[in-house]
Design brief:
alpha/beta, Alkaline Phosphatase, subunit A, 8-stranded mixed beta sheet, 5 helices, globular, disordered N terminus
């Protein structure tokens, strides 16, 4: 393994002071061009009345009440087919964890390589990006800006990020191509944080956070066993806490190993999630739509045509 697992449980800096506050290659590339009012709990979005960021009707999801978690953590791993992770000897922790929540057996990424998939999940669009080159700053809304505009909060935690707000293309095992929030001009530098700065008091987490392991621990360079060991060390304390604190963990992947099907592992665990396996076909736009609908946010881009996840909850509309 190229890098040893980071000790996470003892590292952390409280996020106090954040103002209202998401076939790849390892390493960076050259630069290329490429709200709403605070919602009520148990927010609903109607396919007939919900509006997208451009004012178009939000379609694809009937009116549905979703739970409103106090905190959602989205963790993104790299480049593995669904069949190579859950249910295998290489991933005992993730396999056991998935069994406690809702596993999606028909989950897919949008394209190859990595970077466009991260952008799709975070902004409802691949933003016309078709490669992993370092990007110029992008205009337009995204999940982070939506949350901030609604008086909620967002932080992206990247393992190996050398400094808060770092905009370089690469540093050690950190790769900007896996960090979509740094690409958007309407987000402050304070949302771009090293994983080591995550608070050990999970009650201080933002409303929604994205967590990106480094190139070894995300399974990109070091394989499934490395990612599984990292997940047990870093995620397990949050999983235990989330179940008792109305909070949610989303585990997904950017893409598979390069197939046309692009079939990826994806599951949800936490408060209010049923232990189930579902064959609902989902992609990154469906995940984004679900997060937006939870907090009463207008669906962005292709999320407006996506289907929110509505049938895996034990306590919708808390």
């Amino acid at each position: 393994m190229r890098s040893s697992l980071r000790r996470h449980g003892r590292l952390g800096v409280a996020i106090a002071g954040l103002a209202l506050v998401a076939a790849c290659s390892s390493g960076g590339g050259q630069s290329s061009g490429a709200g709403s009012a605070a919602p009520s709990a148990g927010a609903t979005v109607s396919s007939a009345t919900g509006a997208s960021a451009t004012g178009a009707p939000a379609v694809g999801t009937a009116t549905a009440v979703l739970p409103r978690p106090d905190h959602v953590m989205v963790v993104i791993f790299e480049n593995e087919n669904a069949a190579n992770v859950l249910g295998t000897r290489d991933a005992p922790y993730l396999t056991s964890l998935a069994k406690t929540g809702a596993t999606f057996t028909d989950a897919h990424a949008e394209t190859h390589p990595s970077q466009p998939n991260y952008l799709a999940l975070f902004s409802g669009s691949t933003q016309g990006v078709t490669d992993d080159r370092c990007l110029d700053r992008l205009p337009g809304d995204n999940l982070g800006s939506q949350l901030l505009d609604a008086g909620l909060s967002f932080v992206g935690w990247s393992e190996g990020l050398p400094t808060v707000g770092y905009t370089g293309c690469a540093s050690g095992d950190y790769a900007r191509k896996h960090n979509p929030w740094v690409d958007f001009a309407n987000l402050p530098a304070s949302v771009n944080q090293p994983l080591s700065a995550m608070p050990i008091d999970y009650g201080q987490l933002p409303t929604v956070s994205f967590v990106v392991p480094n190139l070894c621990n995300d399974m990109h360079d070091c394989g499934v066993p490395a990612g599984d060991a990292w997940a047990k060390q870093v995620l397990d304390p949050y999983v235990t806490w989330a179940a008792a604190h109305n909070s949610l963990l989303v585990v997904t992947f950017d893409e598979d190993s390069g197939t046309r099907a692009n079939h990826i592992p994806t599951f949800l665990v936490g408060a209010g999630v049923r232990a189930t396996s579902t064959d609902q076909r989902i992609d990154h736009y469906d995940l984004l739509r679900t997060l937006e609908q939870m907090y009463g946010l207008a669906p962005l881009g292709k999320a407006a045509d996506a289907r929110a996840i509505t049938d895996v909850w034990t306590t919708p509309g808390r």
